[in-house]
Amino acid sequence: MLNHLQSTAASRLADMLRDGQELALLDLREEGIYARAHLLFATPLPLSQLEERIHALVPRRKTRIVLVGDDSLVVRGARRLHELGYTDVSWLDGGMQAWAEKGYELISGVNVPSKLFGEYVQAQYETPHIDPQALQQLLDRGDDILIVDSRPSDEFFNVSIPGAVNCPGAELVYRVPEAVKSDDTLVVVNCAGRTRSIIGCQSLLNAGLKNRVLALRNGTIGWHLAGLPLAHGKESLLPPPSAATLATTTQMTQMVAQRFGVRSIDSGELANLAAQAASRTLYILDVRSPQEYARGHLHDSLSAPGGQLVQATDQYIGTRHARIVLVDTDGVRATMTASWLVQMGWRDVYVHTAPIHAMTALDLPAHACAPPPPYDASLVIGPVALRDALDSGTANLVDLSSSLEFRTGHIPGARFAIRSRLAESLLRLPPADLLVLTSSDSAQAWRAVKEAEAAVAGRILVLEGGTQAWSAIGLPLTGGMEPALEPPDDLWYRPTSPHGGGEDAMRQYISWELELFERLLHEPGLEFHDIASSDCAP
Fold first, then answer.
1. What residues form DSSP beta bridges with 23?
2. Cα gap 366→317, rounded to integer Å
3. 131, 217 Cβ separation under 8 angstroms
4. What is the C-alpha separation between 152 and 305, in angstroms, rounded?
């Protein structure tokens, strides 16, 4: 099956990870399967999502790409990539087994390079911590404490520490100096687990905040496991700084830029980099909040809030050794984010401070947009007609939404399936005159039509507008995972989520994070900056 595809041996892949040239190592398995075991620097790109994500993740068509996955996934993935114009595609010969046989590690989890980096920072800087019980004692005593949750607002809304305020990672140096009552205020930074607590705390320390700053040990997970209460449904975002405070934080971040060699470029230099994007991959990433990005941004930039970019770099950047330009309007957030990417080993990172009047684009750049799925009016069925067909028992309905979307609400009688395994799933359906495909907005359903037509005989239609259109006219939805044609392994569920495994999973997750540092520091391709070296010393 793979004879017609170029292969890359495990030893050759190790050399490629070290050679300093551009490389996209893409794992085509579903996220839930990927999270069980994968190569450290393999970027998760499930085959089910390839068309919609590849252009933003790997924007340059001539990038070296090595695929990981079983034979069927690799063959179909390579075919789709070639159809989309990618010209240098190979597969890891022997897959993960061959990699492990060479003595390299297979690791569980997601966003592992970033989480490993968090543990590296903790070890190198000796970032100060406070235990949950000790923090609670200080709160009970009435001490002047600012608890800052460095996660995105949706995570903060779901669960937070009572009294905490929200300030996503890249915003900490930007907003916290305005929020402290005095230099004596204790600042405690938390996240769900460890990484964003460590990076957030150390960001404030690196920037020279006068206050005492501590990371909450093990974040909200540690707080919960200590038996302390959590809050839900809170919204409390720190406001932006005054002009006077911004002037001060700008000076603080200029010192950070000098310390870590962060380079700034003007609009002309940015244009020069963009002109070379056909021969050298360029990511232009707006590190401000998603809300600011939505109000206007540079024409070729993508939204990548700085805290999440450091926490989950592989969700935004699929090509190693690419050029990265970080954009904001103040220089503070981009510089702090860049300082961490430099320490992670990204060599070509630049900061561009754009005036707000230059942030005029409202749409995504062309290279980030997935090609529209094929649409055929003759293959459409409306919600009412689908309801009648389901009531009469003449139709099977297959839902290709994510398992989380399906759990939250699906059409009664719909069966959950995963697009990458659709052909096998359809064979498990009972006989029916009609097969209808749906997904949350119908896009995934349209992409799967040809695959369904090749797998089964009979009439195949797509629910126009998807499950959202069904719900929009008042038709009912039901929750849960049943009925399902596949297990819900398309996603990795956080241990703090309702489907994440509870307290046992939380304890296992913290233990897993703590083991990363010793286990993975010698993997090929790891290029963390030596924080203890003279050019990085404070």
1. 320
2. 17
3. yes
4. 9
Helices 195-207 & 332-344 angle (0-180, nearest 10): 120
Is the pLDDT at 432 greater than 80? The verdict is yes
- With helix as H, strand as E and coil as C, how does 359-427 read? CCECCCCHHHCCCCCCCCHHHEECHHHHHHHHHHCCEEEEECCCHHHHHHCECCCCEECCHHHHHHHHC
pLDDT at 377 over 50: yes
In which region does residue 228 sit, left (phi positive, over 0), alpha (psi from -120 to 50) or beta (all else)?
beta
User: Ramachandran region of residue 277, left (φ > 0), alpha (ψ -120 to 50) or beta?
Assistant: alpha
What is the 8-class DSSP label of residue 23?
B
Tokens linked to 22: 């551009």
What one-character DSSP code corresponds to residue 450?
Answer: H
Helix count (H) and strand count (E) of the chain?
A: 23, 20
pLDDT tens for 434-475 read: 999 999 999 999 999 999 999 999 999 999 999 999 999 999
Distance between CA 527 and CA 515 in Å, rounded?
19
pLDDT tens string 162-217: 999 999 999 999 999 999 999 999 999 999 999 999 999 999 999 999 999 999 99
| Tokens (6 digits) for 217 | 């040990």
Give the pTM.
0.95
